[in-house]
Specification:
By secondary structure, this protein is mainly alpha-helical. The protein has a domain of 140 residues. It is 66% helix and 0% strand. The chain contains seven helices and no strands. The N and C termini lie far apart (57 Å).
Length: 210
C-alpha cells in the first residue's frame, strides 16, 4: 500500500514538473502573427479543401484560452505518465492529438491565432509521438495493424483540417501553419508503407501531388 502511494506521488510530482516546464516554454514564445509579416500574401500556398471520413474527438469546453486549462493539461500529463499499457498509450496520444487539433481550429475561428498555433504544434507532436509509440510496439511483437490503419486515416484528417486552418489564420500566420503540414504528411507516408508491407490497403490520400 505504501509502495503504491509512493509511486502515485512520484508520478504526480513528475507530471507537475513536466507540465510547468512546458507551460513556461509556451508562455515565453510570442508569435505576434498580426505584427510580423514574413511572407507576402501571394506566396502563401492555397490548400484545396478535401473531406476525410474520420471523426475528430470533441475538444471539450475547456480550451487553452481558458484559465482552467492548466488543470486539464495536468490531467492529460497524468494520464500519459500513468498509462503503462503500450497499446493504450498509443491510443491516448492519438486521442490527445485529435482533441488539440479540434481545439486549435476553434481558437483560430475565435481569432486567437497565437494560442491556436501553439495548440496546433502540440497536436502534431502528439500525432508524431503516437506513431513512434506504435512503431516501438510493433518492434515488441504487438499487433499494430489496426492502429496503423486508424493512424493513417487520422493523419489525412489532420492534413484536411490544417488546410482549413490556412484559410482561417491571419495572413502572416499561414506560412507557419503550412510548414507544420509536414507532420501529418510524413506520418501518412510512413503508415502507408507499413500497411502495404503487411499486405493491407492504406486509405487513399486525396492530397497527392499538392
Amino acid at each position: 500500500m505504501i509502495r503504491r502511494l509512493v509511486v502515485i506521488l512520484s508520478s504526480l510530482s513528475l507530471a507537475f514538473s513536466i507540465l510547468f516546464t512546458s507551460l513556461f516554454r509556451v508562455s515565453s514564445v510570442n508569435y505576434s502573427f498580426h505584427l510580423e509579416r514574413e511572407v507576402k500574401a501571394e506566396t502563401v500556398e492555397k490548400v484545396e479543401k478535401k473531406e476525410i471520413a474520420y471523426a475528430l474527438a470533441h475538444p471539450g469546453g475547456i480550451l487553452p484560452d481558458s484559465p482552467l486549462w492548466v488543470i486539464k493539461a495536468i490531467r492529460d500529463k497524468i494520464w500519459l505518465i500513468s498509462s503503462t499499457n503500450p497499446s493504450k498509450k498509443a491510443d491516448l496520444l492519438l486521442l490527445l492529438a485529435d482533441k488539440r487539433l479540434a481545439g486549435s481550429k476553434i481558437l483560430f475561428e475565435r481569432g486567437k491565432a497565437e494560442i491556436a498555433y501553439s495548440s496546433l504544434t502540440k497536436a502534431e507532436k502528439y500525432l508524431d509521438e503516437a506513431a513512434k509509440v506504435a512503431y516501438e510496439n510493433s518492434q515488441k511483437g504487438i499487433d499494430t495493424s489496426s492502429f496503423y490503419s486508424r493512424l493513417s486515416l487520422a493523419s489525412l484528417k489532420h492534413r484536411q483540417v490544417m488546410g482549413e486552418m490556412v484559410e482561417l489564420a491571419p495572413e502572416d500566420a499561414r506560412p507557419q501553419v503550412i510548414k507544420i503540414l509536414g507532420y501529418p504528411e510524413n506520418i501518412y507516408n510512413q503508415t502507408k508503407e507499413l500497411l502495404l508491407s503487411r499486405g493491407l490497403t492504406p486509405p487513399e490520400s486525396p492530397f497527392a501531388g499538392q
